[in-house]
Amino acid sequence: MTDADLAAHLAQVAGRILQEVRGSGLFSARALGKAGDQTANQFLCHALREVRPDDGLLSEEEKDNEARLAKSRVWIVDPVDGTREYGEARADWAVHVGLAIDGQPAIGAVALPDHYGGTVLRSDQPRAVPPAPETLRMVVSRTRPAKEAVAVAEKLGAELVPMGSAGAKAMAVILGQADIYLHSGGQYEWDSMAPVAVAAAHGLHCSRIDGAPLLYNQRDVYLPDLLICRKDMAGRILELVAEGGKEAGGRIPAPRTP
Questions:
Q1: Which pairing describes strands 226-229 and 180-183: parallel, antiparallel, or unpaired?
Q2: Helix (H) or strand (E) holding 95
Q3: pLDDT at 246
Q4: Is residue 49 domain-resident?
Q5: What domain range includes position 160?
Q6: 25: helix, coil or strand?
Q7: How many Cα atoms within 13 Å fall on the side-chain side of residue 9?
Q8: In this predicted structure, what is the pLDDT of residue 251?
Q9: What does the alpha-carbon distance between residue 249 and residue 78 come to, in Å, rounded to a whole number?
Q10: Same structural domain for residues 109 and 196?
Q11: CATH for 241
């Protein structure tokens, strides 16, 4: 099984497991998220250690380990991205399985188990991204839209599309449900690694909001911001973000070349 096949298979099976946990009817709304997270995490981590024993592993639901830092190949997983949406049986939650090689997001699969009966987007099977409409659409958090994103959307005349998980937002750009995903509210490597691998393979621009590259398997796994959009939009969006940072007192550095 190739790395790409493995990532997609694991993401899809974990999604089915999560649906079974939710459908069991045994957990309260408060307990469901934890039960789903832990169950899917056990499957993903045991499977990866069985079939890729020499690779490193980083999971949101496991204690971090120093051993991964010495590895060239490190699997980075998020068993349930969008726990609230998972519990509500919405479509905008995801399972992330990705492989970073020498810090780069090399392989990724993002499963959307409640999206049209189950969708898995893969870095090795890119599809054509639908053309942009006349009015641009930007996906933002359902509960805490980032100020930078809202400000950029206003300047672009873009419509805001509230959505749950980071993976669902990134995949929305690929699926033609949105055109821009701009985030600055704080994330970790497992939130973006697999989605970025998939989005980049589909020809989209992926970077930090100052244009810097997204690097993974770092000692500090906090990776607070990102931009995913069509490549022809990236320069203008990065400029607007930088302008907003200057207006706010220089909190955001000037954009780097995409």
A1: antiparallel
A2: strand 94-101
A3: 55
A4: yes
A5: 137-247
A6: coil
A7: 9
A8: 42
A9: 35
A10: no
A11: 3.40.190.80
Total domains, the chain? 2
Cβ–Cβ under 8 Å, residues 43 and 13:
yes
How far is Cα 114 from Cα 234, in angstroms, rounded to an integer?
30
253 occurs within a structural domain? no
**Where do we find the tokens 């981590």?**
45
Instruction: Report the predicted TM-score, pTM, of the whole model to 2 decimal places.
Output: 0.93
User: Are 162 and 116 part of one and the same domain?
Assistant: no
Look at residue 9 and give its three-state secondary structure. Answer: helix
Same domain membership, residue 98 and residue 159: no
Amino acid code (one letter) for 178: A
| 93, 85 Cβ separation under 8 angstroms | yes
Flag whether 7 is in a domain.
yes
Is residue 129 one of the residues assigned to a domain?
Answer: no
**Residue 188 bridge partners (DSSP):** 222
Buried b vs exposed e over 156-186: b needs ≥16 C-beta within 10 Å?
Answer: bebebbebbbbbbbbbbbbbebbbbbbbbee
**Which of 49, 94, 50, 46 shows the shortest CA–CA distance to 68?**
49
Read off the tokens for 202: 């589909």
Q: Position of tokens 């009966």?
A: 117
Residues 9 and 118 in one domain: yes
Domain end position, chosen among 61, 89, 122? 122
Going edge to edge, which strands form the sheet with 94-101? 56-59, 73-81, 94-101, 104-112, 119-122
Question: What is the amino acid identity at position 86?
Answer: Y
Q: 93-97, 117-121, 232-236, 249-253 — which is least confidently predicted?
A: 249-253
